[in-house]
């Protein structure tokens, strides 16, 4: 738990310059319903998705902690600093050392897989990502299945440059409708069972936030993922996000075809008609995180003893 708190603090420090003061956006679905997505939407979403060097106070915080106490958590944080600084080969060496000193942790495997991929060793990276999922199916909020699919696609592309033609890295298929329905079949997640639509949304969000921090356009892998994420938001999320993600996909190398133009025009019409009215009543979008389960009822008061 201490490790998770430290990593969370570092992540917030690294995002602080670009993040809005709070997450209280309003979204619109493809029918014009207004709702609270409880996450960034539209341009606020894509503004955070770009390469950014680590902040000096983030680096100094990690160095100070590891000097005082070189335990597992602090060593992991220093490895993350190396990755963020672009020192990928050193990060690989560092995480191999962490694995020898503290074997068996999913955090080490996940970070080692990332460092290996950024160093150009996709096949070895894939092995470590799969090791991390076996060690903890909840690793990276249960989104590592998508990282594995990304690596599988990159490996295939190395021998077949046209591998992505007509393929979805995420493993989803959308109808070529103006507003497609959500896919009937969804890919297997970390545990091998099909993910829910909101879990697919979370995986695309999490993996693309990480990937766009390291990978500048153009990049066919990121373009492929962004196209699916944009269409997923059009089908069941805030269409403001679809409107921002489609052009971002084009910047990464996706083709701006007639269907994309029709979808963007439809989004503009729906948003113009919806205006700025406030959401009315409770509404949950199809790809938003489900609400937390209700709290259990309080225990009954103790019975009074007679006499």
State the order of secondary-structure elements, H for helix, E for strand: HEEHHHHHHHHHHHH
Count the E strands: 2
Q: What does the overall shape look like?
A: globular
Gyration radius over CA = 22 Å
Percent range of helical residues: 55-70%
Give the quaternary arrangement of the chains.
single chain
Percent strand: under 5%
Q: What is the domain tally? A: 2
What is the CA-CA span between the terminal residues?
A: 48 Å
Main sheet properties: 2 strands, antiparallel
User: Treating each run of at least 4 consecutive H or I residues as one helix, how many helices?
Assistant: 13
Descriptive keywords:
2 domains; 307 residues; mainly alpha
Molecular structure report:
The chain contains 13 helices and 2 strands. The protein is an all-alpha fold. A hairpin with a 5-residue loop joins strand 1 (27-28) and strand 2 (34-35). It is globular and about 60 Å long. The N and C termini lie far apart (48 Å).
Show the helix and strand layout.
Elements: H1 2-15, E1 27-28, E2 34-35, H2 43-47, H3 56-68, H4 72-84, H5 88-101, H6 106-118, H7 122-135, H8 139-142, H9 144-159, H10 197-212, H11 220-236, H12 239-251, H13 258-274
Antiparallel strand pairs: 1-2
Helix pairs in contact: 1-4, 3-4, 4-5, 4-6, 5-6, 6-7, 7-9, 10-11, 11-12, 12-13
Report a brief summary of the structure.
The chain has 307 residues and is mainly alpha-helical.
């Amino acid at each position: 738990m201490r490790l998770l708190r430290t990593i969370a603090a570092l992540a917030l420090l690294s995002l602080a310059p670009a993040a809005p003061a709070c997450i209280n956006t309003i979204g619109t679905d493809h029918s014009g319903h207004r709702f609270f997505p409880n996450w960034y939407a539209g341009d606020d979403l894509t503004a955070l998705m770009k390469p950014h060097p680590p902040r000096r106070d983030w680096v100094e915080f990690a160095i100070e902690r590891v000097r005082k106490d070189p335990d597992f958590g602090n060593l992991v944080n220093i490895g993350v600093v190396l990755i963020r600084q672009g020192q990928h080969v050193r990060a690989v060496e560092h995480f191999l050392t962490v694995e020898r000193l503290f074997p068996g942790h999913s955090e080490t495997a996940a970070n080692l897989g990332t460092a290996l991929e950024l160093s150009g060793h996709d096949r070895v990276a894939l092995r470590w990502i799969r090791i991390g999922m076996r060690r903890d199916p909840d690793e990276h909020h249960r989104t590592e299945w998508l990282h594995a699919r990304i690596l599988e696609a990159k490996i295939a592309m190395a021998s077949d440059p046209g591998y992505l033609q007509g393929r979805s890295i995420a493993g989803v298929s959308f109808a070529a409708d103006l507003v497609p329905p959500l896919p009937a079949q969804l890919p297997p997640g970390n545990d091998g069972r099909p993910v829910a639509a909101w879990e697919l949304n979370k995986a695309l969000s999490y993996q693309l936030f990480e990937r766009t921090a390291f990978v500048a356009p153009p990049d066919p892998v990121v373009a492929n993922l962004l196209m699916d994420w944009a269409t997923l938001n059009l089908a069941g999320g805030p269409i403001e996000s679809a409107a921002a993600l489609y052009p971002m996909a084009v910047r990464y190398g996706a083709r701006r075809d007639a269907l994309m133009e029709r979808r963007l025009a439809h989004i503009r019409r729906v948003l113009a008609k919806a205006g700025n009215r406030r959401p009315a009543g409770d509404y949950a979008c199809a790809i938003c995180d489900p609400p937390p389960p209700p709290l259990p009822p309080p225990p009954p008061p103790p019975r009074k003893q007679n006499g």
